[in-house]
Amino acid sequence: MGDGSHIDPRLLLSHKFPEDTYTYTERDVALYALGTGGCTRNAVDHDELKYVHHEDGLKHIKVLPTFAALFFGTGPLDKKIPGLQFDPQLLLHGQQYIELYKPLPSNATLKNKVSVVGLHDKGKAAILEMEVKCYDEASGELLCMNRGTIFLRGAGGFSESSQPYSYSNVPPNQVSAVKIPKEQPFAKFEDCTLPSQALLYRLSGDYNPLHSDPRVAKAAGFSQPILHGLCTLGFAVRAIIKCVCRGDSSLVKNILGRFLLHVYPGETLITEMWIQGSRVIYQTKVKERQRAVLSGYVDLHRLASLL
Ligand SMILES: CCCCCCC[C@@H](O)CC(=O)SCCNC(=O)CCNC(=O)[C@H](O)C(C)(C)COP(=O)(O)OP(=O)(O)OC[C@H]1O[C@@H](n2cnc3c(N)ncnc32)[C@H](O)[C@@H]1OP(=O)(O)O
Question: How high is the ipTM of this complex?
């Protein structure tokens, strides 16, 4: 375990998180769409303008499904959690899973129920899985659920190496990394991130200096600030909505993304998609380095009528 890191599984897993409130407005929705590359290449893009503009006013704009990931905030970076001490500079976002139960309104106040659903000792790192269920305060309805996996470098080794600690109450089929098919993809979409992408995206609420401060990025092992994982996920799912859903984001039901490698703002993202029933398997690569940076799946409510 690295200096200053300490994990006590008993304390951490028995911690009861107080209910959290999260409020967003149409301005947040539009800013998020721009932060994840919406309308960047084409300001009148038919599929994307609806996330930032409506002729009858902002309260009619649509919400991208990946916006749901923001409801978590930055999890353990925000608050002290008993039994969890780690170096925040070494934290990386490992994975994100989202289930959407209702279309997201253009503004809302949410009541969030947070819990720890997984903890693993990987020796060099600890993996923490957190879940948040988000209820619309006005209607009491469950809108969505998020599960975030956090990779804490240097925080492993808190259990016996002969029998490393591992706890999960998450169905394994929801979280395991996907197998990329060998066939040619159904579709491929190329999109450029801006050199200022992380500076724009952070205004959606994740102010982790890893994405903006060159000194912090260097201390974390990167040559320059890196892009937020959730920003890359936003680009990938937007590509799938465009290529497979023909712009209809209401078809999206569940989303999984595993962050395989960091992205530097300004790099080009190529997302490849394969269709398996109503599931879209995808992989995003950085064109300049020819490396896969994200993979996962998007489950759709229906598909056949579209293709
Ligand atoms: C609650 C939500 C709050 C979110 C807060 C987020 C705050 C943000 O500001 C932070 C960010 O956005 S960081 C940017 C996005 N993330 C990244 O760039 C990370 C990219 N991934 C990597 O670098 C490596 O995959 C890396 C380093 C993650 C792993 O690579 P390696 O060290 O080579 O690991 P490896 O030896 O391959 O595997 C060790 C064990 O870990 C499991 N694992 C690997 N990658 C994982 C991943 N991405 N997610 C979850 N688990 C992962 C492996 O399965 C392996 O376990 P096992 O030995 O049992 O197979």
Answer: 0.98
